[in-house]
Amino acid sequence: MLKHRGFPGRLPGTDFQFTIRRPNPKGVTALSRRERYHDRRPADRRADAGFIKALWEHFGDQPFERGNLDAGRISWLFEREILAAEDPFDPESYDALLVLDLRVAQLSFPDVFGE
Fold first, then answer.
1. Higher pLDDT, 40 or 53
2. Dihedral-angle region of residue 50 (phi above 0 means left; psi in -120 to 50 means alpha; beta otherwise)
3. What's the CA gap between 2 and 62, in Å, rounded?
4. How far apart are the C-alpha atoms of 72 and 107, rounded to whole Å?
5. Using CB atoms within 10 A of its CB, is residue 106 exposed (0-12), middle (13-18) or buried (19+)?
6. Inter-CA distances, 50 with 18, 83, 102, Å
7. Is the peptide bond before 88 cis (omega within 30 degrees of 0)?
8. How many CA atoms within 13 Å lie on the side-chain side of 64?
9. 6-25, pLDDT tens digit by residue?
10. What does the alpha-carbon distance between residue 50 and residue 56 come to, in Å, rounded to a whole number?
11. CA 108: distance to chain centroid?
12. What is the DSSP code (8-state) at residue 99?
């Protein structure tokens, strides 16, 4: 499992984690699309925005390996702001390649991109 050095471990001042320390001994947690409802808590929305900002600053619009990025945090954004960057895509692989969909991310989180 690739560890993304320099990537923030969590949203500052919260318990919203962005990375994991070690591989899951019971197997890799699969990525899946989680539905985001309009009535989500503001803290959850800040965590999503913080994660998108960290992805943008760390990887830009280039494909990146899932590595030690938290599956739960990715799943809140998966198949919207974060897309599979390879075909076939294995949602249960730490080596899976993902990419930030810049157009969708800018629409969903305009404050992150300064628009």
1. 53
2. alpha
3. 16
4. 22
5. middle
6. 9, 18, 15
7. yes
8. 23
9. 999 999 888 899 999 998 88
10. 10
11. 14
12. E
Q: Is 59 exposed, middle or buried (0-12, 13-18, 19+ CB in 10 A)?
A: middle
- Identity of the amino acid at 68: N
Query: Within its chain, how far is the Cα of 33 from the centroid?
Result: 11
pLDDT digits (tens, 9 = 90+) for 63-102: 999 999 999 999 999 999 999 999 999 999 999 999 999 9
Q: Which of 83, 64, 86 is nearest to 75 (CA)?
A: 83
- Check residue 115 and give its pLDDT: 57
What pTM was estimated for this model as a whole?
A: 0.91
Strands 97-100 and 64-65: antiparallel
Average pLDDT over residues 34-61: 92
Give the list of residues 6+ apart from residue 22 with CB closer than 8 angstroms, or none: 1
Spatial separation of the C-alpha atoms in residues 33 and 76, rounded to whole Å: 6
